[in-house]
């Protein structure tokens, strides 16, 4: 049977239907984007009812912003407890953002450390505590760096390894950044509790990728002054030899960290201390020995510098007129300006 509708009219109707369908799809897509963006905003500072209402309208809890953060991650970063409670049933605790962070890692790295224990309670059941971010840190290492005592204890209990290390062999005792709890009595109490926890979760003689123990790193970095070294020494053996046959004293002497040499001397037998460094006076105590050794080094360095300066003739430069001029001066027209240290780096 021959169609009574001209072919060109049939094609025109078909194109019109496609255009309408595309327009509807675009509007639906635009509406979905608006809902997802609204959910991310509600996760930051909205109430539980707002979050639940947006999801009821079709907002996708797995949608992410440009950094790869989902609504649950946003809620964890901002410690929005109501939003976390609403998002948990549909949240993916193993999802990661562009920095390879999970909601748990984000949750123990932002906000008040005193609340991190609560964050662990909520997110740990849906998370992998062994997951590490781009910096090779797990949630446990981040909590330890932030001094979150309750979170440290709970994450240690959940750790498959009772003495965990990160990917480069770092233990909790090897953290370069340690928390400051304050100088008052309560701060000192919290500091002792932090040390107890990280000691519980660390092997004091474990070595990092270059063979340094926690005690050696405390000496080498000098990141915490003598504070951390004093905290560690009662729990470590300063005469312990690492895989390279070195002690913490060797590391301190090689780095000329005489403050550390003096502190280590208080915890080492005189015989062991004198054996480790060239002899000065066997009758001296280890502390006096360390001070004398440091002074000898300083005197030798000063004499060497003075000798070098005397042997070096003063530099001169020639101006355009052919006259000699001191090297620390520049021509009047400024064509030959002396370079700063920053320009040499």
Strand tally, please? 2
What order do the strands of the largest sheet run in, or round the barrel if closed? 1-2
Cα gyration radius (Å): 33 Å
Low-confidence stretches: 318-322, 324-345
Largest sheet: 2 strands, antiparallel
Q: SSE order, as H and E?
A: HHHHHHHHHHHHHHHEEH
Percent helix: 40-55%
User: Which band does the percent of strand residues land in?
Assistant: under 5%
Principal-axis shape: elongated
Distance between the termini: 88 Å
Structural classification:
mainly alpha
User: Quick check: average pLDDT?
Assistant: 80
| Number of helices in the DSSP assignment | 16
Compile the SSE list and pairings.
Blueprint lengths: L6 H39 L2 H9 L14 H7 L3 H7 L15 H5 L8 H8 L15 H8 L2 H10 L26 H16 L13 H8 L5 H6 L15 H7 L3 H8 L4 H7 L9 H26 L4 E3 L5 E3 L14 H4 L1
Antiparallel strand pairs: 1-2
Brief write-up:
Helix content is 51%, strand content 2%. It is mainly alpha-helical and 345 residues long.
What does this protein structure show overall?
With 345 residues, the chain is mainly alpha-helical. The protein has helices at residues 7-45, 48-56, 71-77, 81-87, 103-107, 116-123, 139-146, 149-158, 185-200, 214-221, 227-232, 248-254, 258-265, 270-276, 286-311, 341-344; strands spanning 316-318, 324-326. A two-stranded antiparallel sheet has the order 1-2. A hairpin with a 5-residue loop joins strand 1 (316-318) and strand 2.
